[in-house]
Amino acid sequence: MVKKFGAKSADVWINYAQFLHSTAQEPENARALIKRATQTLGAEKHLYLALMPKFAALEFKSPNGDRDQGRTLFESLLAAYPKRFDLWNQLMDLETSASPANPGVIRDLFERGSKAKGLKPKQAKTWFRRWAQWEEKNGDSKSRQRVSAKAQEWAKAVAQRKEAGKAAEEEEDE
Fold first, then answer.
1. Domain spans of the chain?
2. CA-to-CA distance for 90 and 57, rounded, in angstroms?
3. With a threshold of 0.90, does the pTM exceed it?
């Protein structure tokens, strides 16, 4: 089936995996499809990043999916591409939208995302705002204050790095 519709297209593999998860009720075959898809598409970064998050999302969204399997796929992506904050946001969307959401896992994910390498100020602002909103809904005032303290701590650390960078530039100029 994949040969007929174009094995070099990531969308064909994703649609086939979705069919196997939802309609055919064969999640094991869909998981085996990941290996075939990555072998066929090759190691090109843009195809890999188009394919793997969608396979992981299928594990979260499918009635036959395994949330831990999807989490593992996302964790491997985050280990390989820690600066890709869109992956952090996708995982957070999937974790928070899951029916029995686990607050411990979500807090841990927010915590790790706030410490991600290469986190830009604009991304950090939206990340901490999102975390604070989530804590208002699902946490208590103490957890909300902890988020505010983490945000201030992050801002101080960024300001110190900027000052250290400026001081190093001035020393080089002299």
1. 1-81
2. 8
3. no
Distance CA(152)–CA(159), nearest Å, equals 11
DSSP string, 91-110: HHHHHHHSTT--HHHHHHHH
pLDDT digits (tens, 9 = 90+) for 134-162: 999 988 889 999 999 999 999 999 899 88
120, containing H or E segment: none
Burial label, 45 (beta-carbon count in 10 A; 0-12, 13-18, 19+): exposed
| CA pair distance 140, 90, nearest whole angstrom | 25
Sequence-ordered alpha helix ranges (H) in 81-173? 85-97, 103-114, 121-138, 141-173
Residues 58, 21: Cα–Cα separation, whole Å? 8
Contact 144, 135 (CB under 8 A): yes
**Between vectors from CA 62 to CA 96 and to CA 28, what angle results, nearest 5°?**
125
